[in-house]
Amino acid sequence: MGHIRFDNDDDDMNVTQAPQPSTYAPAGPPGTLKLPVCCGSARVDFNFNNPCYVFRVLTSASGDLISASVSNNTVKLYQPSGPLLSLVGELRGHTGTITDLSFCSTSQPHTVVSSSTDGTIVVWDVRSAQPVERYEVRGQEVFSHSSLEHVLAAGTTGEVLFWDRRSGKPLAKLDDTHAEDVTQVRFHSSGRIISGSTDGLIAVHDVSKSFNDDDVFQAAINISNSVEEFGMYGHDGGRLWVRTGTETVHLWEWLRATSEEVAGGDMQFADFQAARDTASQACAASSAANLLPQVDYLVGCHYDNPTNQLFLLSGHNDGAVAFVPILEQPGPQGNMVAAAMACPVMALSGGHSSIVRSVHCMGEGVSGPLCVSGGEDALVCMWTLDQELANAGAADAAGGELPSGLAASGRSQQRMSPGPDRQHVQERIGGKKKRPSPY
């Protein structure tokens, strides 16, 4: 993901500040709040009789292609050109909900992978919008996938399955760890694979040399909650953020936990049991309070590699999203021992009118696009801190009719072409709203 640059990056990195325990916020005084502009947006569907919404948005490594998985079982492909998002393709073939989406490695820049509850994983060539590889799990739903070189992995009910992409044949399966749906699988560059499940277990296996269950299991942590999403972060990808079904947030030093050279312990160093409340406190103590009077749901996390900073993306039902820094406290042995939330440093507002499902950062934003987002208002939005690009977007929106498939950008123009209403009745857990799961 791209680096988000802030005016006081260098100064902030030199400040020694001991974060408070993970149950408190904010952990520092509010600073200047960055407000990127929605310079362009595109509707994923114009059929108001059958409204749909966006599950996930991603950009290619080069940033010249944006993919969006949509609730009508398709993947939309957009090309950013200045402030415009041009629809350049549509991937059709799944008959069930798309549960995961990824671009292949830089050696295959023209391929996108999607998995679905229809029991398939499909590798698409975006130039022809046709499938080039297809893997099927009969009688099961596929909830997640990940690939490393020629190996493809998928999470199903109680199993992690592997295929050799060179031959298209199954390689192995891990079926002794999880008892329920494996909602997330992700490869680390070392050949380890991390899996998370609705059974509350997150497991690490090293499949770089073998697929034998007894040989490859390395570590596990039980967070006693359904794993909805996780991501590796840190310069070596050695830390893990986890978002659960009740929107608690956990941080884990999984790479240290699997190292024979490090003293034992599960290395979980933060447990935000009331993450939305804590993020709400952080927003209320900043100039983002008027944009996010409360945090209704969590979008996920973004890691900024150059500054080694993790952000919790916190959303309001009306479409605003705040970037809330998570400040980590190292202990005497170099491992992290605690974390706290600080006041948000940036907020996206004025693009979406409903729940935002996904945000993906793609650059610094000061000289081009910053990130893209997708939501339940059927919009894919592109954001920037570049005033020139923002002005170009405003000029295009005011210039009259836009090309087919494009919606006007900006606050006032956005209201001219509203998306469908929220598609789901909000579930309540402990009396609080919870974002519905995509599957």
Automatic annotation (TrEMBL):
Keywords per UniProt: Repeat, WD repeat
Lineage: superkingdom: Eukaryota
Compositionally biased intervals (Basic and acidic residues): 421-430
UniProt-listed InterPro entries: WD40/YVTN_repeat-like_dom_sf, WD40_repeat_CS, WD40_repeat_dom_sf, WD40_rpt, WDR89
Location of the region described as Disordered in the Swiss-Prot/TrEMBL record: 1-28, 398-439
PROSITE patterns to which the protein is assigned, alphabetical: WD_REPEATS_1, WD_REPEATS_2, WD_REPEATS_REGION
Bias-annotated ranges (Polar residues): 14-23
Keyword Repeat applies: yes
Ranges for the WD repeats: 91-134
Matching PANTHER family: WD REPEAT-CONTAINING PROTEIN 89
Protein name according to UniProt: Uncharacterized protein
Species of the source: Volvox africanus
